Amino acid sequence: MSAGDWAVLALLGLIWGGSFFFGKIAIAEMPPLTMVLGRVGIGALVLLAVTFASGTRFRLTLGLALGIAGLAMLNNVIPFGLIAWSQQHLPSGLSAILNAATPLFTVLVAQTFTRDEKLSAGKLAGVGLGFAGVAVMMGPALLGELGGHQLPAQLAAIGATVSYGFAAVYARRFRGLPPLAMALLQLTAATLILLPVVALVERPWSLPVPSATAFAALAGLGVLSTGIAYVLFFRIVARNGATNISLVTLLVPVSAILLGALFLGEALEPREVAGFGLIALGLAAIDGRPARWVAGRARAGR
Fold it and tell me: Labelling 64: which of 91, 99, 265, 301 has CA 20 to 30 A away?
């Protein structure tokens, strides 16, 4: 990826770093599918306004609409629902660790279903180093919570990463659409799919009205972590493919910890710095340019 693409990936990681925080607040007062509906609905409204303001145009056919509906299921409805349900039972840190497994599944799905994103030693080593970095950064206390009575929630969180892996590969087929149009159509489809499901299953109008804090967290999820985030997401998919976009999940816990250190006065621990280093090595291994530069310098020195 170019330096600009890496910058966009880092920005997306920063934005999604807040999604677990927002989600943990909102899910305390809202049923999971209702929260997901609010998230994608707000995101769709934001992107609809941006689409009209920017003058973006696209042609919607029946085939495209059906394809978008499938993408919305893989990228929004299934993973958002699984994550929202799991957040009722898991601490945010453990959720972030499990979410960081997304590149592992994306690499495997891309290996199976694509011709130009095959598994390489660099990709495999990079993903392994990145995932190890997340685990080191989070520490043994959270890792010790794996299994036990929380296993169903943990499996749900892992199921979300598998769905994300398929979504990243499936999204490649829509490369001809502008990223803004792609994001708008996907979130609109997810909203339409979820509306009857939420009405039949959770009946949110019969529940107590959530607090202003919960609504503010939902707005953060919808505007930042969904609407704006998916414009960046599809930009990277169109330019760099499925494996590279999945790397953002390695940056999410990094951004969450750095935000805490910068704005909440939380101290950086040595294990967190070590985890950052492993993630940086993993991203460098996947990118490949540092290794090629070292090899070129070695050849030049002979």
Answer: 99
Measure the CA–CA gap between 15 and 138, rounded to whole angstroms.
19
**What are the distances in angstroms from CA 195 to CA 27, 167, 174, 200, 204?**
18, 21, 25, 9, 11
Closest CA to 134 of 86, 157, 101: 101
Q: Following DSSP, what letter does each residue of 261-275 receive, concatenated?
A: HHHS-PPPPHHHHHH
Instruction: Give the C-alpha separation, 190 to 37, whole Å.
Output: 8
- Dig out the tokens for 8 from the structure: 């966009």
CB 233 within 8 A of CB 51: no
Q: Please give the backbone phi and psi of residue 117, each rounded to the nearest 5 degrees, phi first.
A: -125, 55
Beta-carbon contacts of residue 151 (< 8 Å; ≥ 6 apart)? none
Percent of the chain with pLDDT over 90: 25
CA angle 153, 219, 175 (to 5 degrees): 80
Task: Give the separation between CA 229 and CA 235, rounded to whole angstroms.
Answer: 10
Which residue type is seen at 143?
L
State which residues of the chain have pLDDT below 70: 1, 92-94, 96-97, 116-119, 138, 141-147, 241-243, 245-246, 256-268, 286-302
190, 74 in Cβ contact below 8 A? Answer: no
H helix intervals, the chain: 3-17, 19-26, 32-54, 62-72, 78-86, 92-99, 102-113, 121-138, 140-143, 151-170, 179-201, 212-222, 229-240, 242-246, 248-263, 270-287, 289-301
Rounded Cα–Cα distance for residues 226 and 238 (Å): 18
**pTM, 2 dp:** 0.76
Q: In one letter, which amino acid is 285?
A: A
